[in-house]
């Protein structure tokens, strides 16, 4: 408990109790006596340097024998080294300081960087990072796949985030006067406007709210699993056939997915999407028959 | 604290004699000592042990120590390096928050500003075992594709939302996607795998999914309409013809017909195959089967 508290300063007894699932009074009883602990070694007394005050706040003036960073667990070392190495390739990083820091970490941990993170670097990431950092409005030319259209809009960037390998820009869109998320590799042009915005990031909720997309159940051969792995699909059955449920934000998305999955896949339960794949296939076929 | 402060390993008898932590060296005190050691280990503090040799009374017993290197990181980062590492860990985050736990141990402070970019990575359970295996040259065993595998792992890497192990199976270099493992990973003894040259992720596995698989020599010509022409040219290149309406014809290596169709149909009505005839036939057959499947 003491070590955890030391590593999570400033901290109170009630926070320690919460973390360890203890009654606050029990945690206080365990932590309070730490103040008086002294150990004599070679006739020299070492006090731990912990103070727990009456309000339950814990203060440290830790003895140098104990006050240095502890060894990292393998998972922690892996996480930190991998993150640091990956960040070397991202815009906005102090590359020189990070490189020497990583070298020192590797030496101290006694392990090498055998885990690599290969983050894609789409064409406009750097300028979008710059605009996000400076709260500068940008004009983007964007291909919206769900609508199958290109539009030009001015947006006020909040955050640029990589989820499942793809970069997204969360921003306020002046064209729609609403919050929107844009996939960075579908941005076809960016212009800095020189105008800064003062809008504060409302967090994730406004971006995920609104009407929920209908969920479609699809049956497909197991060998097509790789096509749905990057999607937000829930596996319902995983036997000779794979049955998954997928939220469908637009019929264009579902149409293209069914074209890719091919004749051995089908939408279960029919409904409005029953003929979608065959109609799309017929339309495409007519282009080859011209 | 006593074990930490002692300059050399000490025996149970010396611990009882030199500290007031245990009232005697009886079995009840020894049980308390065992519990204390367990608590320390659970906190991540290794207790070094060594056997006591010789012929005297203490012979055959154990000496204990908490060695500096087992407990503390000998790390001397400058302020700029600390800040750069902290910023990196705020930009690249594992969903298991490993880097946050590590920063807590390093005593990191608060960043002056939030990073403008952030990448979120999954942290599958197998990752720590795989890292250990690569780091110590250990063979790994797991079930994949319905059969048991024995692999010499060389590199663990993340790409497009997935973790992969690059390694040698039966002398052949292969890539295995970690989320498709069908069992936990068993890690063999240190040094049980051979040493191999560690490739860059791009050498281990082509970044373009269309280039996965053996070379077929088949090159398709694909017409991309104006709506997607600029994006496809930027992402793939290979333009062999530009048409007046803004559409382009590009050349694409076809190594796996499935991957090729997936890429092609991902563009819907905006792309059609022009050549070679066998690829056109393949696509037309696929579409006809889809039409007649209703």
Task: Note the quaternary state here.
Answer: heterodimer
Number of strands of chain B: 14
Number of domains of chain A: 4
- Quickly count the domains of chain B: 4
List strands and helices in order, with pairings.
The complex is a heterodimer of chains A (290) and B (294).
Chain A lengths: L1 H6 L3 E2 H8 L3 H8 L6 E4 L2 E4 L2 E3 L4 E4 L13 H14 L7 H15 L5 E4 L6 H10 L1 E9 L4 E15 L2 E8 L4 E6 L3 E10 L8 H4 L6 E7 L3 H4 L5 E5 L2 E7 L3 H11 L4 E2 L8 H14 L1
Antiparallel strand pairs in A: 1-5, 2-3, 4-5, 7-8, 7-11, 8-9, 9-10, 12-14, 12-15, 13-14
Chain B lengths: L1 H4 L4 E2 H7 L8 H16 L5 E4 L10 E4 L2 H4 L7 H13 E3 L3 H9 L10 E5 L4 H10 L4 E5 L2 E13 L2 E8 L2 E6 L8 E2 L13 H4 L13 E7 L1 H11 L2 E4 L5 E7 L2 H9 L5 E5 L1 H16 L2
Q: How would you describe this protein?
A:
The complex is a heterodimer of chains A (290) and B (294). Chain A is an alpha+beta fold and 290 residues long. Chain A has four domains: 2-60, no CATH class; 74-109, no CATH class; 125-208, SH3 type barrels, CATH 2.30.30; 215-289, no CATH class. Chain A is 32% helix and 31% strand. Chain A contains ten helices and 15 strands. Chain A has a five-stranded antiparallel beta sheet, covered by helices on one side. A four-stranded antiparallel beta sheet of chain A has the order 13-14-12-15, with no helix packed on it. Chain B has 294 residues and is an alpha+beta fold. The N and C termini of chain B lie far apart (76 Å). Chain B is 35% helix and 26% strand. Chain B has a five-stranded antiparallel beta sheet, with helices on one face. Chain B has four domains: 2-71; 79-121, no CATH class; 126-205, Roll (SH3 type barrels); 211-292, Alpha-Beta Plaits (2-Layer Sandwich). Chain B is built from eleven helices and 14 strands. At the A-B interface, strand 2, helix 4, helix 5, strand 6 and helix 6 of A face helix 1, helix 4, helix 5, strand 4 and helix 6 of B. Strand 8 of chain A pairs parallel with strand 5 of chain B.
